[in-house]
Write a structure and sequence with these properties.
- By secondary structure, this protein is of the alpha+beta class.
- The protein has a single domain, classed as Immunoglobulin-like.
- The protein has two helices and 13 strands.
- The chain starts with a helix and ends in a 6-residue tail after the last helix.
Amino acid sequence: MCKIKLQNLILYCILFVACNICRGALTTVESYTDSNGFYRYTAEKGDEPFLLGGGTNLCFQVQSFNVVSINDPPGWQSTEDLSGIISWNFTNENVTTIDAPIQFSFQSHNTDFVYYTEYPLGIIFGDIYNTNGTLYSPNSGPETNNFFTSVNISGYEQFGYVGPVIPEPMLFWIFLLLALKIKVWENCFSRFVLI
């Protein structure tokens, strides 16, 4: 009896690990840089049967630094906050989904780039739709024409991406403390005259 429980436990552990390794994605995001400060992100449907979409709640975000210009895809509007996060928000009240590729891009003064895999991650969020692979057909009647089957839940996905190198704020404090230490050192020893 105890042997069967141990075998079940091992089986559950293997299934848990396999499910986490093999899980699908609602979206895939491909990132690109030309090494001259131009960064482009292409979002498209992943391998899940569900679609990520929404109206004005559909949003795509990446961390940036020293931005010169932002390019918005049709129907999207970008904003940049003080911390350098660029958010592209879908502006249409009508629902759209990310099934065909959508490109977001910006130009930065910073040409040094890095692939972010842990922090900061890009985020795309909205509603998750079960469409059974298609929209309702136009023959379904006026109440269902071009509407999605159902909104299941709101959700998001995180992704790694290529982005500009964000300077460490710690360097500023190190230089500031070093400058203060030098100033204090000069003030302390300026009273003494060497003979």
